[in-house]
Write a structure and sequence with these properties.
The protein is an alpha+beta fold. The protein contains 3 helices and 8 strands, in the order E-E-H-E-E-H-H-E-E-E-E. It starts with a strand and ends with a strand.
């Protein structure tokens, strides 16, 4: 059984939903040695989140941002506003979307469905770089 963990930093991205699967996999060459396993991805922030969704049509990412803004509008009378009008809605969106993912590994690759990929959901207008903790667990081939 193998355990491996590392922290990576994703470059700052504009507000929205961003496909980051390749950025993550490229920084995990250790995954190739696993015959079967699990990748756990955790974001160390409360104003951005992670999800798995459509990886082919970029319109899905646009629609996800629109739907998230509809569900959690910035116009609500939030009390926590010291970090800006987009901060508290970002916390709510983060809690709704989630801060971690677990993805099976099969023969050194993520065992996604045909159209799945990892999204970084940036909920702030200027969120900055985002830290992820990547944990691999599994049996080496």
């Amino acid at each position: 059984m193998m355990w491996f963990q590392k922290q990576i930093v994703l470059a700052a991205k504009r507000r929205g939903f961003h496909l980051v699967t390749r950025e993550i996999v490229d920084q995990l060459p250790e995954m190739k040695s696993l015959k079967v396993g699990l990748l756990h991805v955790f974001i160390q922030h409360t104003s951005a989140s992670l999800t798995i969704n459509e990886n082919a049509d970029p319109d899905v990412r646009v629609d996800m941002e629109m739907a998230a803004n509809h569900l959690v509008p910035e116009s609500l009378p939030y009390v926590h506003t010291v970090e800006g009008r987009d901060d508290m809605p970002a916390h709510v969106k983060g809690s709704l979307m989630g801060f971690s993912l677990s993805i099976p590994i099969n023969h050194g690759q993520l065992a996604f469905g045909t159209w799945q990929g990892i999204y970084l959901c940036e909920h702030r207008n200027h969120g900055g770089p985002r830290r992820l903790v990547l944990t691999l667990h599994g049996d080496a081939s």
